[in-house]
Amino acid sequence: MNIVVIGAGGVGVFYGVLFHKLGHNVKFVARGKNLEYLKENKIKLTHSTFSLNEKIEALSIEELVQLNPKDIDIIFLATKSMSTENISLKLEEWTKNKKEIPYFISLQNGVENEDIMCEHYNKEFVIGGLTRLIAAHTITLGHVESTGEVQTILGAMYPTKQNQEFLENLKKELDKTNTTTFLSPNIKLELWNKLIINNGLNAICALLGEKTGTLINDKKISKLIYGLMSETALASKVAGVDITKENVDKMFELMTKFESIKPSMLIDLEKNRDLELEDICGVVIKNCEKQGLDAPYTRAISTILEFSYNKQRKKQ
Question: Are 64 and 258 in contact (CB under 8 A)?
């Protein structure tokens, strides 16, 4: 298959390398210094089960749209959620009125990326995706370090016979690797289940500068985390997803057993990058407000984090 990965950060590089090792033709879309580096140098990925240090083609999004979309089978979107709208606008004209277009698969944080993508592409070619039990971060330019056993959940936003056959074939390819892949008939539910974890841990870890295991196993802080997770379940009702208390308990228990990691928001804070506060915490607050409810745990943690981080950045 011909595969394009937009976003050559931790998750993007991990999945790009997986398919490259399987023998597929992979191209990374990057920008700035990362693009300059990847055009001239090898990409390095280290994981406990494998490693790679090879040259893989990299291009800009402007170079991507010079290609014929019918020659590409899959485009993985592995960027920060705040870039989804802008990227989709750029690629909309590229695929418009084309008989053959690639499948667009989001591997991002948040629950609204796929809905945005459906506004810009043929919705039958939009696939929701999420990763679990993986930590993958850029150490230096061109070098990504990853840990975890890695689970991938994929599902079509609007299932058809064609996209189900595509997903079955994609799963067969991923099953050749040391990762586990599940196909979901209700990907929106899976995305909200992941948001329970992200809203529960991302912002509070960034605020306190601690790894997930340290906080979720702390007697007092764990109660705040459970509150954050419960507010996410309330917010999901606006999206037509009914997440029960049992779902919340299951996600909370899962994280107490998961390897302690630095979540993406803490990594972004340490590297002075923009935080995905709106896409993780903001959607919870917004959806609770639509029901006439507040989300006090989420509002307090995200507001304090945003204020302190902006103050810190102004000093630099």
Answer: no
